[in-house]
Specification:
The chain contains 15 helices and 25 strands. The chain is an alpha/beta fold. It starts with a helix and ends in a 6-residue tail after the last helix. It binds malonyl-coenzyme A (MLC) and adenosine monophosphate.
């Protein structure tokens, strides 16, 4: 009986009294203690009637318990479906309905809001709070600390991560055990992680970066993580001398650079700073090196593919590039119209293939066919170029996507809501450079004849439907939207007009 994901990430630590999670109050959870908690949760999930292949949706604050739910899913073969804590009840309703989740875990504060969602979908609802309390942990408290691991194969599904699209609703990316394992093992080796490392973990654990990259790499290497509820610059400054590595989105690094206490002296014991999920400005890379002497290692990935490329550990970490395809990953730059591979140096859509690439979108065979070719290449929608030394540079996107502080925001989702607001004739949402978040959404509105738009009321009206981080940071009213001869809104003109809005 084997279960590759559980065996290779978790099971191998049975009895190991080595530190796994170090909490801000210096409390240590060893690998073995973590495994025992996960086994209790595996017994709990099983007692609640879930079996391998069922979906368990979690919208919970970051905690050791939340992470142990992921391990319990691996051990039981249940598919783990983490959800952004910022999502509204309306957004969660879609994920629960679409995934057919049997169990939904949420914070007690969200319980009243989500009870009707769970009931409408015949899902069980239990609570798990950021401090580890809740009905789920109470249910599991007296259960055995051992669980007979359910047999699974590398091709079985391990997780669903929902990702939005340029049109329509979010799609559940189906990730197999192999997708996660292969990538974590490649990355741990590529970035030289060992049991001696201590990773500063301040990313959320409901996305690829914090969950599958940061956590799984540490589990492969056997090292400890200093584990925080979220980004906290004070805690970073305090704890950097006790750590060796940090993984973050570019906002982490620009914020650290804004702090005069972040110096070469402070970071002298650090081995590695890794950035990803959004473009790191070459200028940030240069400033970071000037300040600390460290060259940030930038890598490139996606929910559907895990990590695709990385700058080298040894060798030149080239600012403004995302490095080379990782071992086992094939990457080509293709003509967006024909799909033909383009000659080196030309700009086109990046396509990738390898054991890291997902299995498809849950119950969306057409969407899967549109993006995942029969030969296994996934069309990323990112525009890139490969230089003569083989470094990949992302130059833009062939998809209408805004990335704010590492979170993806699809303009269409916001435009549909703005178009419904009182007095609005039509809208266009664009991404505008933002000093903290990299990019932020701005809504451009056209009023119906005779209507006077109230921007504050329109923004307030989004609160029930749209997570705060997706809401436009500004609304602008214009007489009409610029259109080309085909009638298509020219967002490039709008982006140019408003590019200095947050400068
Ligand atoms: C928070 N807010 C944001 C935001 N995060 N607004 C825009 N964009 C964001 N990313 C808003 C909140 O709604 C709130 O608004 C206010 O900012 C304060 O919230 P907060 O929670 O205190 O913010 P903070 O802790 O400062 O968070 C900022 C952040 C965080 C950048 C640290 O967003 C973050 O951790 N981002 C990482 C995202 C990530 O992990 N992405 C990986 C995706 S995987 P208000 O108005 O209510 O005050 C992927 C694949 C790959 O992309 O390659 O890795
Ligand atoms: P997500 O769907 O949340 O996984 O976001 C994936 C997207 O983030 C990619 O398609 C890219 O557009 C972007 N991305 C990730 N890493 C980088 C990077 N290092 N540089 C530029 N864009 C990146």
């Amino acid at each position: 009986m084997t279960n590759p994901l559980y065996d290779r990430l978790f099971g191998k630590y049975a009895g190991a009294e080595t530190p796994f999670l170090i909490l801000p109050d210096e409390r240590v959870i060893t690998h073995d203690a973590f495994l025992r908690m996960a086994a209790r949760f595996a017994n709990g999930i099983t007692a609640m009637g879930l079996v391998a292949g069922d979906r368990l949706a979690v919208q919970v604050g970051k905690s050791p318990e939340a992470l142990a739910v992921f391990a319990a899913c691996a051990q039981t073969g249940v598919i783990f479906l983490p959800l952004n804590t910022a999502y509204t009840g309306a957004e969660i309703a879609y994920f629960v309905e679409n995934s057919g989740a049997k169990l939904l875990l949420c914070d007690t504060k969200k319980q009243a809001d989500l009870a009707p969602v769970a009931a409408a979908n015949s899902a069980r609802l239990e609570t798990l709070n950021g401090d580890g309390s809740g009905s789920f942990t109470e249910f599991c408290a007296a259960l055995p600390e051992a669980f007979a691991t359910v047999s699974r194969s590398a091709d079985d599904l391990a997780a669903f991560l929902y990702t939005s699209g340029t049109t329509g609703r979010s799609k559940g990316a189906m990730l197999t055990q192999m997708n996660l394992l292969d990538n974590a093992e490649v990355l741990a080796k590529h970035w030289r992680f060992t049991a001696e490392d201590v990773l500063l973990h301040q990313l959320p654990i409901f996305h690829t970066h914090g969950l599958f990259v940061a956590t799984n790499v540490c589990l492969v290497a056997g090292c400890a993580m200093r584990f925080y509820a979220g980004f906290d610059a004070e805690a970073l400054i305090r704890d950097i001398p006790k750590a060796t590595a940090l993984m973050g989105v570019p906002t982490f690094y620009t914020r650290l650079l804004d702090d005069a206490r972040f110096t070469k002296e402070l970071t002298k014991g650090m081995r590695l700073f890794i950035s990803g999920s959004a473009p790191l400005l070459a200028e940030t890379h240069v400033q970071f090196e000037e300040r600390t002497g460290h060259r940030i290692l930038e890598r490139y990935g996606m929910t559907e593919t895990n990590m695709n490329t990385s700058n080298p550990y040894e060798g030149e970490r080239r600012a403004g590039t995302v490095g080379f395809p990782l071992p086992g990953v094939e990457l080509k730059v293709c003509d967006p119209q024909t799909g033909e591979a383009l000659p080196q140096g030309e700009i086109g859509v990046i396509e990738v293939r390898g054991p890291n690439v997902f299995k498809g979108y849950w119950q969306m065979p057409e969407k899967t066919r549109e993006e995942l070719r029969e030969d296994g290449f996934f069309i990323t929608g990112d525009l890139g170029r490969i230089d003569e030394d083989g470094y990949v540079t992302i130059v833009g996107r062939n998809k209408d996507l805004i990335i704010s502080g590492g979170y993806n925001i699809y303009p269409k989702e916001i435009e549909l809501l703005l178009d419904e607001a009182e007095g609005v004739l039509e809208s266009a949402v664009i991404g505008v450079p933002h000093p903290d978040f990299g990019e932020s959404p701005v809504g451009i509105l056209v009023a119906k004849a005779g209507a006077v738009l109230d921007a504050d009321a329109i923004l307030k009206g989004l609160n029930d439907s749209l997570a705060r981080f997706k809401q436009p940071k500004a609304l602008v009213v214009v007489p009409e939207l610029p259109r080309n001869t085909m009638g298509k809104v020219q967002k490039n003109i709008l982006r140019e007009t408003y590019k200095a809005m947050f400068a």
